[in-house]
Amino acid sequence: MAAKDKHDIMDALLKGSSEDAADEALSLAKLIHRKGGEPEGGRQPVAGSLSPEAETKKTPGSESKKKSTHYISEEIFEDLDDARDKINELVHPRLKSRISKSRIVDQALRMILKDFEEKGEKSHLIKEILKDLRQK
User: Fold this and answer.
1) How far apart are CA 105 and CA 71, in angstroms?
2) Is the pTM of this model over 0.70?
3) Within a 10 A sphere around the Cβ of 24, how many other Cβ atoms?
4) How far apart are CA 45 and CA 32, in angstroms?
5) What is the mean pLDDT of residues 111-135?
6) What share of the chain is helix, strand, coil (3-state, %, to 5)?
7) Contact 116, 123 (CB under 8 A)
8) Among candidates 43, 6, 9, 40, which has minimal Cα distance to 26?
């Protein structure tokens, strides 16, 4: 195919009408994330990509999980590593591989959100947030 006969998807997206752009965006999405079957080269989608499969994770016997990014203080970040190490010392060796920072954060959030649901404005979450805001 001659260079002038090639269809430039990105050029069409940037210069075309919104209807054309939607069609081109769909074509581009299909090209990037092949529907059905394994991606080209046998590689799986990268987490954080446009693929919905990359955003949700489901493991056998567990609920589905969503990838989420939040900022935490450096102190909490380091404390999380320490907590994982200490928990690994307390559990049976065959369970160590299942102890992750994600699991710790998930469980901690379950506990604090349950407390918030039950106690509302008297919950530890509200008390700590207000204390933190007053200090700043």
Assistant:
1) 13
2) no
3) 19
4) 10
5) 95
6) 65, 5, 30
7) yes
8) 9
